[in-house]
Amino acid sequence: MTVKVKARISETGQLVSAANNDDWALVHPSTGRGPDMYCPDSDDRCRSKLIAVEKQNKTKGTVTRFFRFPKNSRRCTHAEVEHGVEVRSTPTASGGESDEHLWLKQFVLDVAQRCGYAAELEHSLPGVRADVWVPGATRARVEVQRVPTDIPTRTGDYPDVVWLLRETAITQSTKKYLFGSPCVQVRISKKLARTTETILIPGRPWEGDTEVEISASATVLHLRHGPHVVPGEKFFETHPIPLEKFLRQVWSGERVWYPRGTAHSFAGWVLATEYERYQQWLKAQQDIQHALRAVNAAIDERADRPARPDPAPAHPGPAPSQPAPAPTPTTPSDPATLAARHPAADKGNLTQTAQSALVMQQPEPDWMQWIDLQLSPDVPNGWWKRLKKRLRVGRRQ
Ligand SMILES: [Zn+2]
């Protein structure tokens, strides 16, 4: 029998080997279905499908791993070998968990215990089992994920969770979960000193790498630095922080997960103090918009008034109850247009128009003082300049 011992993952093009334990855990998971795969040949762009299989050799206590074609599918002879890869059969309590998964769970447990939590591994909850359980913490359930999975389904009945996703869990079809569910990407890297530079390469501490950097990335949101945010730009940006720091902040409630569209265009983790500043900034933007609308409305009202002074503004007091004054021949507004702009005119009630006109006759409109009082360091100068320019233009008319 000829078989293959290498394959390529359809979605990522990643080359996987039956001899590599981590690769095998990825393509032959103990539960659920592995990713779609095809022939490892890349020269001929062969797309023959492959599946990962294990054959138990009970008497020898070994397992043979190899890739074969699904039944009735296209076959090819690329990269064929005589035998699969034979490994020792090592059934453990953790089933098919890879060394990487076990290592990362232990890392999270160690951090939790250093924080003083009575944390434990594999804790049973209603309907689910937490990889790491951190009682008393916000997001007490921690899940480590290194193969693609349906995060919302797996979240199940216990949504107070933080998902730690490895790169291998994030594919075209699952990255929506990273940016839509309480997930963070975990990167593990180590420095490689070369003659002229130091570069970062993936670290594998579970295989003995030391001095690795473990970071939380992709959905860790920070206030933007530098000049103040201008309208249309994002208030937050994302950059990595050490995973330990991230977990401490999340468990203590300092860093909070906000769903898609609340703090940022995608879901992410924001310091509560920074979210508060964002809310204040939003409020300031709304106040500016409100002021602009009030100003524009006042300017429009004045433009609509007949060229001759209306007698009503000279006598502020009880609302005039007489019918709407007929427009003078010189005004471009015909009665129909006026009525459309001021539905109240239909009912013979011009109270609102008259009051707005009064406001505009004051030498220094109140809202100019209001604007000056509202100056806040969180609002860029450009905004005020443009707003004030708009107001001056309006007043000259
Ligand atoms: Zn092939």
Automatic annotation (TrEMBL):
Residues 304-339 are annotated as: Disordered. Residues 309-332 have a biased composition (Pro residues). This is Uncharacterized protein. It comes from Antrihabitans cavernicola.
